[in-house]
Amino acid sequence: xxxxDWLKQQxxxxxxxxxxxxxxxxxxxxxxxxxxxxxxxxxxWLWWNLLLACLPAGAAWAAYNLNAWASRWRTWxxxxxxxxxxxxxxxxxxxxxxxxxxxxxxxxxxxxxxIMFIAFAWTGTMMGIVSLLMMQTIVRQHFGRAVSWLFALCxxxxxxxGVYLGRFQRWNSWDVITNPYSLFxxxxxxxxxxxxxxxxxxxxxxxxxxxxxxxxxxxxLSDWRRVDEA
Length: 230
Known about the structure:
Helices cover 81% and strands 0% of the residues. It is an all-alpha fold. The two termini are 26 Å apart.
């Protein structure tokens, strides 16, 4: 009985977890079929990028649940999870940019690879959106609705900038720890000489706008369902 009560309380998280697990399984299944059926075992970096996309989702989930703890360590633990989440969040949206590698391959149906790339992009998008929803909820509970939306907008901008650094400058989240000085210099040069790095800001603005629209759409759909069920 206690277990059933716990399941009811955690229903939203369980439903989200199952949906993301199914999306992840679909991606990995398509990649496996590509190798097994068509004999093309390339694109193995896709599963690695998918694994990295799971990290911010896991960090946000941990922060969301730790935030409910009645412990003096709660703030510190949520803060650590939040910093980890912010550093690795671009890895989720990064999967969208992997479509840049989509091209015809001999022996593999064009439509199959198209579906596979879309599946990976969708899963990465959902990983990012779900994690941002959780973190925004934490901020709203502590600081109010207005601050939570300011937080979300700032995160969307930083996320898009991080995707640019990963895709075009080939930086990764680990460089925040392993090579912080070079990363800082590269970032600083773009702000000190903005006219020489117009692509950086154009990509950040456009990608951020696209991801913001995705995010707002998911929120609108969730509100629709909540009102409909009421």
